[in-house]
Amino acid sequence: METDALHAMLTGNNDAYAASFDSKGVPGQAGTTLLLLTCMDSRIVPHEALGLDVGDVKVIRNAGGQVNPEVLNDIVLASHLLNCQNIVIMPHTRCAMASLSLGEVRAKLSDLSGMDFADFSPRMIEDAHAKLAADVSTVKAHPLLKPGVNVRGAVYDVDTGRIMWH
Ligand SMILES: [Zn+2]
Questions:
Q1: Rounded distance, CA 166 to CA 164, Å?
Q2: Where is 60: in which H helix or E strand?
Q3: Beta strands 150-156 and 163-165: pairing type?
Q4: N or C: which terminal CB in the chain sees fewer CB atoms within 10 Å?
Q5: CB count, 10 Å around CB of 36?
């Protein structure tokens, strides 16, 4: 979609949204106590997949739905400050981050762009199961995570919409 057309569409959509907006006064804390970390993949619509509404859930997204130092800080912060008593880390099936090696993604980006990606290091995932287990452990083991916070993994299936809870 061309940029101007996209912007016009988004503006129109938002005008309609704002015209019927009824979420004023919804608290900034997560209503369900859930914080979800998932991938930026456009096939995942967390509120729809989980049947949630405005104000219900904190969502952190990145390529792969992965824990990294910044995400870890956000989760610790949210556990104390934003009523996030339940943390779910939810990568998904057929994730590009888990299907290409670092070498492959560098080659692909160089091919696509003609630019030099030799030193570019996105966090590619070698073993999706092991990575999810490690990420759950990393969050659980953080010494400053609010005591009693529940951390679990899940995998979203982009072909069925089903969430497989770990
Ligand atoms: Zn993904």
A1: 6
A2: strand 57-62
A3: antiparallel
A4: N
A5: 25
Rg (CA), the chain: 18
Angle between helices 128-141 and 69-81 (to 10 degrees): 50
The token pair that represents 121 in the structure block: 């290091």
Q: How far is the CA of 41 from the centre of ligand 1 (A)?
A: 5
Under DSSP, is residue 46 helix (H, G, I), strand (E, B) or coil?
Answer: helix
Q: How far apart are CA 19 and CA 9, in angstroms?
A: 15
Q: List pLDDT tens digits, range 33-68.
A: 999 999 999 999 999 999 999 999 999 999 999 999
From 103, 139, 108, 145, select the one nearest 121 (Cα to Cα). 103
User: Please, which residues have CB less than 5 A from ligand 1, an ion?
Assistant: 39, 41, 95
Residues in the chain: 166
> What average pLDDT score do residues 142-165 get?
98
Distance CA 50, CA 156 (A): 11
Residue the block writes with tokens 């953080």: 142
Which CATH number does 27-165 carry?
3.40.1050.10
CB of 80 closer than 8 Å to CB of 149: no
* End-to-end CA separation in angstroms for the chain: 38
- Ligand 1 center to residue 18 CA distance, Å? 30
DSSP state of 42: T
